[in-house]
Amino acid sequence: MPRYFHFCAHEQFPPGDLLRQAVEAEEVGFDGIGCSDHLQPWWEPGESGHAWVWLGAAAEATERVPLGTGVTPPGPRYHPVLIAQAWATLEAMYPGRPYLGFGSGESLNESPLGADWPPVGEQIERMEEALELIHRLFAGERVDHRGKHFKTKGAYLHTRPERRPPIYVSAFGPKAAAVAGRFGDGVWTLADPDNAPKVIDAYRSASEDAGREPGEILLQAGFSWAEDDDAALEGARVWKGAQPQEFYTDDWHDPQAMYRRGEEQLSDEDLEEKFIIGSDPELHVERIRELEELGPTIVVLMNNSGADPHGAIRTYGERVLPVLRG
Question: Strand pairing partners for 110?
């Protein structure tokens, strides 16, 4: 049986509200907490609380669940040494609970810092180089490095916990999945029935080639619940701004333009196919069981219930999670 993580959307809700969501999600029986790591939302007006600051507060406010990002990228925004330091600190303070969701990032969050957005192959190269550095730092090395994307001079983790938090690598294609197989403790992808099996197969193959056992398979889906179907749809409609595939690879970093593009490309019916949207808990159960057929070990459920996120958590605790586990 997979575990079920509640995913907190920094793009949609202010950080204080997300802190309530995290506490409530643990109370009703979710097995873990995730959160997005963004500089900007996919639309305006939106939200963009800093994930790392929020994670410290969320870890203190909750008691037992694993928690981490989905996902943190290396690049102009975060040097891999700082990523390693942040997760070493979380692990030292909340041992056994943090995980690091890791990915190549999007122009949306990196280009505003003034850097040019590289092509996909270079994005994956940068992710792999950063993962190598993070592994070396957690292994206790003092790292001198002059790579294509990053440089270090005697970088060292002076606060280094006993455990390296698990690293779940985001992948939408076989190249990134191969990096996950070599350097990750799992692969994280969208619960797309057309693409997810290819990503999972590539991840498992790369793990075997590297002489490693495959780790966690995290499949992510968005959900929106409300008292009626129209309100559930309206609460998630802003997420049209995150759906066009080119936003994840190409140089798109204007949230207003991105939402307009999403509105042009996706109908309401398209959004309802991609997300779990509706007032009937049985619909949510049915759709989650369908994605479980893809073979996840962790189902990441992103709460996009703009109409009533806290009511959605209660509904999942009372009428969705117990049925899934029953």
Answer: none
CA dihedral 79, 242, 125, 137 (to 10 degrees): 30
**CA distances (Å), 160 to each of 101, 136, 140, 155, 157, in order?**
19, 12, 8, 13, 6
Look up 263 and say whether it is catalytic.
no
CB of 148 within 8 A of CB of 128?
no
Please list the alpha-helical segments (H only) found in the chain. 15-28, 51-61, 80-93, 107-110, 120-138, 174-183, 196-209, 229-236, 255-265, 268-274, 281-292, 309-315, 321-325
| Sign of the four-CA dihedral 154, 159, 165, 170 | negative
Of 77, 29, 75, the C-alpha closest to 51 is 77
- Of the residues 11, 106, 125, 128, which is catalytic? 106
Token digits for 113? 């810092």
d(CA 105, CA 196): 19
> Are the beta carbons of 314 and 23 closer than 8 angstroms?
no
Distances (CA, A) of 118 to 65, 114, 207, 248, 249: 36, 12, 27, 12, 9
Contact of 201 with 173, CB cutoff 8 Å: no
Q: What is the per-residue pLDDT for 131?
A: 98
pLDDT digit string, tens, across residues 125-145: 999 999 999 999 999 999 999
106 catalytic per annotation: yes
pTM greater than the 0.90 cutoff: yes
Spot the catalytic one: 10, 24, 26, 38.
Answer: 38
Residue 237, phi then psi, degrees to nearest 5: -60, -30
Interval 53-88: pLDDT, tens: 999 999 999 999 999 999 999 999 999 999 999 999
